[in-house]
Amino acid sequence: MATNIEHMRKQIIVTALIIISCPESYSQIIFENGYFIDESNKKNECLIKNVDWKNNPLGFEYKLTENEPVLVANIQKVKEFGINNVSKYIRVKVNIDRSSDQIDKMSSERNPSFKEELLFLKVLIEGQASLFQYVDSNLTRFFYKLNDSEINPLVYKKYLTDHKIAENNSFKQELFVKLKCKEIDISDIKHLRYAEKDLERLFAKYYTCTGYNYINYESKQKKDLFNLTIRPGLNYSSLKIQDLITGSESTDFGSNVAVRFGIEAEFILPFNKNKWSLILEPTYQYYKSEQSKNASYVSGGILVSKVDYKSIVLPLGVRHYFYLNDKSKLFANLSYVIDFARNSTVEFSRRDNSVLSSLEIKSKPYIAMGVGYKFNDTYSIEMRYGVSRNILGGYSFWGSDCKTMTLVFGYSLF
Q1: Engineering a disulfide at 142: which of 154, 169, 191, 407 sits with its beta carbon 3.0 to 4.6 angstroms away?
Q2: Residue 118 lies inside a defined structural domain of this protein
C-alpha cells in the first residue's frame, strides 16, 4: 500500500513538472483582432498577442494575418495600439513620480519627484474627460486629460514626516476643480481613494451628470473573478508512529480509504488571462485504524494500537491554469495546509481494552501539491499529494509519518 502511494506521489510531481515546463502548449494567450498606429499615423489592422498585461508593456507581438510570421512592435515605433473591445494603450511623454510606498525607501518630501518618460498608458475611460493608468510591479499611477489638453498626472504620494506616514492627496483637489458638475460635491471627493474603481466611478458620475458620451474600456471586459466549488473526494492515507526513546511502541497503521468533503473559494487574479488564482478550501477528513501485535511487556501479551483522527484542514494555495481550448484546461496547485484536529487520539491498550496511554493528535502544517483538469468552468477532477507530516507535534519523544493521496471531484456553483 505504502509503495502505491509513493508511486502515485512521483507520478503527480512528474506530471506537474511536465505541465509547468511547457506553458506555451497549454496557453489561452492568443492573437486577437486589433490595430496599431505607426509613426506615420497609419492605422494597421492586425492580430495582437493578448497577454492581458499586468504591467504596462513596452511593446507587443503581432501578425498581419493568421498565416504570417510573428512580428514585434515597440514603443519607439508605435503611437497607439489596441485589442478590439478589450483594451487600448497610447504612447505619451508624461511626468511620472516613482516614489516608493515602502517605509524603508519612503521619501520625506511631500511633493512628487517628477521625471519625464515615454510610456504606454492604458486607457480606462475615454471622452471629454479621459482617465489613464500606468502599472509597473508595485507602482500604480493615474493620469487624466480634459478635451484636447495635455495628459497630466493625478498626484498621490506617501511620505514620512516626524516618523509618521503622511499622504499628499493633491489628486482630490485637482479632480474637484476639473470635473465641474452639480452632481459631484465635496463628499464624493473626501472619501475618494487613489484606486482604479474609485476613480472610474467618479468619472462615470461626471458623464452621467454632463450627458457626454464616453467609452469605459474596463466595463468591456467584465471578468468572473470568484468561483465557489463543492469538492468531495477520497483520501488514501497511511500512518506510522514510533516511540523515539525505546522504539517499543512503533506501529504501522497501514493505508485506508476515507471520504473527505470540502468547499473551495477561488479568487482569480485579474491579469495574464486569468491564469493565476488564490485558493482556500476548508475540508473535513478522517482516518481510523486499529492494529494488534504481540508485546511481552504488556499484561495479556497483546498491545492494541488505535488511531482516531478527525480534522478540518485549511489549504491556502496558488493555482495556475493551462488552457487546452475554450472549455478545457489543466491546472496545478501548491498549497500550505493548516490542520485543525479535534477529539483525535492515538491510544495504546491491553487486550481487555484497558488504556495504557493516550496521545493527543496535533498536526504540524504541511505542503500539498496537485494536478487536475477542469471542463466548462464547472466540472473538475484533481489528484493531490500531501507530503509527509508529523501528527504528534505536541510530543518531543514521539515521531509520526502521515501521508495522504487525494482524489478530488469538483462542481462549481458559480
Answers
A1: 154
A2: yes
Pinpoint the alpha helices (H) of 159-195.
170-178, 186-190
CB-neighbour burial class of residue 241 (10 A; exposed 0-12, middle 13-18, buried 19+): buried
pLDDT of the residue at 27: 45
The three cell numbers of residue 233 are 473526494
The pLDDT value recorded for residue 15 is 55
pLDDT at 275 over 90: no
CA distance 319 to 317: 7
Same domain, residue pair 110 and 258: no
pLDDT tens by residue, 163-217: 899 999 999 999 999 998 888 989 899 989 999 999 999 999 999 999 899 999 8
Is residue 183, in this structure, part of any structural domain at all? yes
Summarize pLDDT for 43-59 with one digit per residue, the tens. Answer: 999 999 988 888 999 99
Helix (H) / strand (E) element for 146: namely strand 139-146
The predicted pLDDT at position 243 comes to 81
**Lowest-pLDDT range of 245-249, 258-262, 316-320:** 245-249
- How far apart, in whole angstroms, are the C-alpha atoms of residue 149 and residue 401? 69
Q: How many CB atoms lie within 10 A of CB 352?
A: 9
Query: Distance between CA 105 and CA 123 in Å, rounded?
Result: 30
Cβ proximity of 92 and 119 under 8 Å: yes
Residue 26 confidence (pLDDT): 44
Cell reading at 109: 518630501
Whether 20 is in a domain gets the answer no
pTM above 0.85, yes or no: no
Number of structural domains in the chain: 2
CB 47 within 8 A of CB 30: no
The bridge status of strand 283-294 relative to strand 328-341 is: unpaired
Q: 18 vs 24, 72, 370, CA distance in Å? A: 12, 29, 13
Enter the C-alpha cell of residue 298.
504488556
Give 155: exposed, middle or buried? Use CB within 10 Å, 0-12, 13-18, 19+. Answer: buried
Question: What are the distances in angstroms from CA 129 to CA 125, 147, 193, 213?
Answer: 8, 6, 18, 10
Query: Which is nearest to 237 in space by CA: 286, 306, 292?
Result: 286
Task: Report the SS3 class of residue 69.
Answer: coil
- 7: in domain: no
**What is the DSSP code (8-state) at residue 103?**
G
CA 367 to chain centroid: 17
Query: Where is the domain boundary, 189, 220, 251?
Result: 220
